[in-house]
Design brief:
Elements (H helix, E strand, L loop, with lengths): L1 E6 L14 E2 L2 E2 H12 L4 E5 L3 H9 L19 H14 L6 E5 L8 H14 L3 E7 L8 E3 L5 E3 L16 E11 H6 L8 E5 L11 H14 L2
Parallel strand pairs: 1-4, 1-5, 6-10
Antiparallel strand pairs: 2-3, 5-9, 6-9, 7-8
Helix pairs in contact: 1-4
GO molecular function: N-acylneuraminate cytidylyltransferase activity
Keywords: Nucleotidyltransferase, Transferase
Pfam families: CTP_transf_3
Length: 228
């Protein structure tokens, strides 16, 4: 079975009720559910939540909610991997075998069905542990500066001061959208950011973290422009 798990706890702090807050006409989580369903690669699309309202919105959006997540996996310190491991254990105890599992974030309105398809293709083709979405840094990280305790600027990598931008190694960061993995890799807690992973590279204009209200406004502007 190929399973999509969308983690969506109820206690978001910086943006209240973020997972079901209306985003460009739909509850935020509905965009992730819709992309998963439209990708055609999943046997089941489920939402793992501790919140009954989120569960109802998820069902109305087309996902399944076969269980309510335990409270100990829904506090501010709960990591994603234990949540995924809990879902795997639930299905296996129910006698259902999972071959590939995709953790898809509830706050990923820019994710596209073809990206999810590409992730599964990469996972199988490369015979790796994980395949997840990344995007390029817009500026060379080797030119990064910081403000020191005296309020002055200093380079983090001063040895790169005279290196031409085109000669610097290209760098990427997690796009915060989806993470395909083999069940055994999830179960063993293997590092997602490690040599057992391959990238699915996305263009920068389709990647936006949504952690603050400012992020939210920017994301809606971007989304509306791309879907005009």
């Amino acid at each position: 079975m190929k399973l999509a798990v969308i983690p969506a706890r109820g206690g978001s702090k910086r943006i209240a009720r973020k997972n079901i807050k209306m985003f460009c006409g739909k509850p935020m989580i509905a965009w992730s559910i819709e992309a998963a369903l439209n990708s055609g690669v999943f046997d089941r699309v489920i939402v793992s939540t501790d919140d009954l309202e989120i569960a109802e919105v998820a069902r109305q959006s087309g996902a399944q909610v076969p269980f309510i997540r335990p409270a100990q996996l829904a506090d501010d310190h709960s990591g994603t991997v234990p949540v995924i491991q809990h879902a795997i254990e639930w299905f296996e105890q129910d006698g259902q075998q999972i071959d590939y599992l995709c953790c898809l974030y509830a706050t990923a309105p820019f994710v596209r069905p073809e990206d999810l398809q590409a992730g599964l293709d990469a996972l199988i083709r490369e015979q790796c542990d994980f395949a997840f979405a990344v995007t390029r840094y817009a500026f060379p990280v080797q030119r990064a500066v910081r403000i020191n305790t005296q309020g002055r600027i200093e380079m983090i990598y001063p040895e790169q001061f005279n290196t031409r931008s085109q000669d610097l190694q290209e760098t990427f960061h997690d796009a915060g959208q989806f993470y395909w993995g083999r069940t055994q890799a999830w179960r063993l807690g293997k590092p997602v950011f490690g040599p057992g992973s391959v990238p699915v590279v996305l263009p920068g204009h389709r990647v936006q973290d949504i952690d603050t209200l400012e992020d939210w406004v920017r994301a809606e502007w971007m989304f509306r422009e791309m879907n005009r």
